[in-house]
Design brief:
Blueprint (H helix, E strand, L loop, with lengths): L6 E5 L4 H12 L3 E6 L2 H13 L4 E5 L7 H13 L4 E4 L14 H29 L2 E5 L12 H24 L2 E7 L5 H14 L3 H12 L7 H12 L10 E4 L8
Parallel strand pairs: 1-2, 1-4, 2-3, 4-5, 5-6, 6-7
Helix pairs in contact: 1-2, 1-8, 3-4, 4-5, 6-7
Length: about 260
């Protein structure tokens, strides 16, 4: 229980990686604020958090809206009196052929994942400075290894990685730890949709489709949400406190560059 007495916000935490992170941090002792658009899923997450013995708060909002970041932080501080951790996880981006993607597609990708994180960070920073707190940004391997079908996601993730480096530098002066994790393929609902498409394309079952996917992607295996959650928990623990401004690839080896 390395996070006893701390309060954490995890955005995009109604499902998938974000929910796994929120539950892991609760098991490590943190009281949790979960934020996303789906109130029912958030309330379900809070029940799981409370099952660990910690307190939870659901804040349903659309982080694409300029006022939402401050709303989440204000709700966290009002309920728990402090803020120690921010995990910026919210944001899915549209894949597809570049010539078929619109300005609106690009703007939507940046609005949630990039600007949502920027606004949450801005609102949280004074509280994190006061508590000598920490931020973990969840970006993606596509920010370092761009692909033709991932022009939006790769661009947004690269921006998130640059933003992390800049805020880590500010964090040295203000006593705030800032790092970024770059997941590769992780078993979420979105990945399962891609896997079904691979199975249909090759005429195989899902198990064989996953093996084909791993061979074609040249990775050791598909990640699980708990893999990312465990890495976040390590970074936020006393054992990870020396790590500052790091870009950590948790991607099964998909990033081949230095």
């Amino acid at each position: 229980m390395t996070l006893n007495g701390k309060t954490a916000i995890v955005s995009g935490s109604s499902r998938g990686i974000g929910r796994a992170i929120a539950l892991r941090l609760a098991r490590e002792g943190a009281d949790m604020v979960v934020a996303a658009r789906d109130q029912a899923l958030l309330e379900s997450a809070v029940k799981e958090i409370e099952g660990t013995g910690r307190k939870g708060l659901a804040v349903a909002c659309d982080l694409r809206l300029p006022e939402s970041g401050a709303k989440v932080v204000e709700a966290a501080v009002a309920k728990f009196g402090r803020l120690d951790i921010l995990v910026n996880n919210a944001g899915a981006t549209k894949r597809g052929d570049f010539l078929a993607l619109t300005d609106d597609d690009f703007q939507d990708g940046f609005a949630l994942k990039y600007f949502g994180a920027v606004r949450l960070t801005r609102a949280a920073w004074p509280h994190l400075k006061k508590s000598s707190g920490a931020i973990v940004n969840i970006s993606g391997a596509g920010g370092r290894t761009p692909g033709a079908q991932f022009t939006i996601g790769g661009s947004v993730n690269a921006a998130m990685q640059s933003f992390t480096k800049a805020m880590a530098d500010q964090g040295i002066r203000d006593g705030v730890q800032v790092n970024v994790i770059n997941p590769g393929p992780v078993r979420t609902a979105r990945f399962e949709t891609r896997l079904k498409a691979t199975a249909a394309e090759h005429g195989v079952d899902l198990k064989e489709a996953e093996a084909i996917f791993c061979r074609e992607a040249d990775i050791s295996r598909v990640g699980e949400p708990d893999d990312i959650a465990a890495l976040v928990a390590f970074l936020l623990s006393p054992h990870g406190r020396l790590i500052q401004g790091a870009m950590i690839d948790s991607d099964g080896g998909s990033t081949k560059t230095l």
